[in-house]
């Protein structure tokens, strides 16, 4: 039976050789062109079938050159090496051009992966027959860049969806299993929190573990494309780190800016964003270790690309802080629009104005939320920090400046003593708020200094200001920012000019 099969194979080869003897070189070139000439990729078809669209043509090219290689090595004088190489260069150029067009239509990363795997299989097979395929692997590096851009677009939608779905509230944890599940998704350790009984809350919102998980998924997706490309571990590690840096500095950074600048974003949401980005910043070294583990390249390798996650999250946190300061000032302006001073009132009231009382209550409740802000990256997220202090000082300075502008408006031409008394009561209410320490961490009366200009300008309207101008020493502790200047002295009298006495005429 085996002899019969061998005889059939031998007869088939002889028959193929006799047929190929009648095919000219120009006809063979035409067949190569015809392989790709009938292949017309279009966006709709490629999105539907992915790499399988190119599979029939690549399979045809593969079979064609396997036969050519067999003829080259089993016959004498029928074909030569130069002829096969010329034919291969022609087919390779057409193949690469068609595959470039094919890949440019793909917008699904899974379809690009299918195409990449098909090209790798095609290249490895023909390389085994001795055909040069370096151009195919160079093209795969180009497709890798396209693949990276497709991934960035996909993860941009993912991050935005996570931000839109987040409730910007600390994660409540009811059981030990739930706590371990979340800490398994995100590297978080807090010995003090672990000692607390259930139920308890994690300081960050769902945004943090979901984003961290998606960062790892992105790294896995980058690794999939680099497989079987005959790259070294260092090259793969560098490629993954560069792609991850693009994800952090461009995609995730833009999404965070979108969430921060979004219309109607509340102060509580901005505070939670600051907490979230602080914890994500602390997790960057875990992400470095994750990449090193899957690439087997130590993170301290010379010339290794470092992740820019720290700067990304710092920039987002600073943007959120600035947005907090801006929003607070806008809220203060809204309350001040309700101010309605009667500058000619006969006497002032004994209580602070209603608008100011409401404003102080709003600031107290706002700064109570700020006590959850982290101070430094190494501190616990429940500690008050510099962000809260800066926001409080900024709000007090803005309030002081705005009240002073009310008093010094151009249309305020006259001010009665009763109006000044009411204004003084409001200033005292602001000072009482500052002394109460709405945010811990201020030393002494530091916060009270925000209203010192307002206080001294108000005192200027009271009767004892002339005594300060005449006798500044006893009042120096009251008018700290005023330096009395003596009244201008009248210019000395001009001596009479000497005029010559006219000589009488004789």
Automatic annotation (TrEMBL):
The keyword GTP-binding is annotated on this UniProt entry: no
One of the GO biological process terms: vesicle tethering involved in exocytosis
UniProt keywords, alphabetically: Exocytosis, Transport
GO cellular component: exocyst; plasma membrane
Coiled coil: none
InterPro entries referenced in this protein's UniProt entry, alphabetically: EXOC6/Sec15, EXOC6/Sec15_C, EXOC6/Sec15_C_dom1, EXOC6PINT-1/Sec15/Tip20_C_dom2
Residues annotated as transmembrane: none
Stretches for region Disordered: 486-506
Record domain Exocyst complex subunit EXOC6/Sec15 C-terminal: where: 135-457
Biased composition (Pro residues): 486-496
Low complexity biased stretches: 497-506
Similarity annotation: Belongs to the SEC15 family.
Official protein name in the record: Exocyst complex subunit EXOC6/Sec15 C-terminal domain-containing protein
Source species of the chain: Albula glossodonta
Top-level taxonomy: Eukaryota, Metazoa, Chordata, Craniata, Vertebrata
């Amino acid at each position: 039976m085996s002899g019969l099969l061998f005889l059939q194979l031998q007869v088939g080869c002889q028959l193929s050789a006799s047929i190929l003897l009648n095919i000219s070189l120009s006809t063979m070139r035409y067949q190569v062109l015809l392989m790709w000439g009938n292949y017309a990729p279009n966006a709709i078809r490629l999105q539907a079938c992915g790499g399988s669209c190119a599979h029939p043509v690549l399979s045809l090219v593969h079979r064609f050159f396997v036969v050519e290689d067999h003829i080259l090595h089993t016959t004498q004088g029928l074909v030569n090496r130069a002829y096969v190489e010329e034919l291969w260069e022609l087919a390779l150029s057409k193949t690469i051009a068609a595959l470039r067009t094919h890949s440019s239509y793909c917008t699904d990363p899974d379809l690009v992966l299918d195409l990449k795997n098909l090209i790798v299989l095609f290249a490895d097979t023909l390389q085994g027959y001795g055909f040069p395929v370096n151009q195919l692997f160079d093209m795969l590096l180009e497709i890798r860049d396209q693949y990276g851009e497709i991934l960035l677009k996909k993860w941009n939608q993912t991050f935005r969806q996570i931000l839109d779905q987040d409730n910007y509230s600390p994660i409540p944890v009811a059981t030990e299993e739930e706590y371990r599940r979340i800490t398994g998704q995100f590297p978080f350790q807090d010995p003090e929190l672990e000692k607390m009984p259930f139920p308890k809350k994690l300081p960050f919102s769902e945004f943090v573990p979901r984003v961290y998980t998606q960062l790892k998924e992105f790294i896995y997706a980058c690794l999939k494309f680099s497989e079987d490309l005959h790259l070294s571990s260092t090259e793969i590690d560098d490629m993954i780190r560069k792609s991850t840096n693009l994800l952090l500095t461009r995609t995730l950074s833009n999404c965070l800016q979108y969430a921060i600048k979004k219309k109607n974003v509340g102060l509580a949401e901005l505070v939670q964003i600051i907490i979230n980005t602080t914890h994500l910043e602390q997790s960057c070294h875990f992400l470095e270790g994750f990449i090193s583990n899957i690439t087997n390249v130590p993170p301290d390798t010379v010339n290794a690309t470092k992740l820019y996650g720290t700067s990304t999250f710092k920039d987002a946190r600073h943007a959120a802080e600035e947005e907090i300061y801006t929003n607070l000032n806008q809220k203060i302006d809204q309350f001040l629009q309700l101010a309605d001073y009667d500058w000619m009132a006969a006497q002032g009231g004994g209580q602070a104005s209603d608008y100011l009382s409401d404003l102080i209550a709003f600031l107290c409740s706002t700064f109570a939320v700020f006590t959850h802000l982290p101070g430094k990256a190494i501190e616990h997220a429940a500690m008050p920090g510099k962000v809260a202090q800066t926001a409080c000082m900024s709000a007090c300075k803005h309030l002081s400046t705005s009240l002073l502008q009310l008093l010094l408006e151009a249309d305020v031409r006259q001010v009665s003593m009763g109006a000044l008394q009411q204004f003084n009561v409001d200033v005292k209410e602001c000072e009482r708020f500052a002394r109460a320490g709405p945010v811990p961490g201020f030393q002494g009366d530091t916060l009270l200094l925000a209203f010192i200009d307002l206080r001294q300008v108000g005192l200027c309207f009271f009767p004892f200001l002339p005594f300060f101008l005449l006798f500044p020493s006893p009042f120096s502790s009251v008018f700290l920012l005023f330096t009395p200047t003596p009244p201008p002295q009248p210019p000395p009298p001009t001596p009479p000019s000497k005029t010559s006495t006219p000589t009488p005429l004789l």
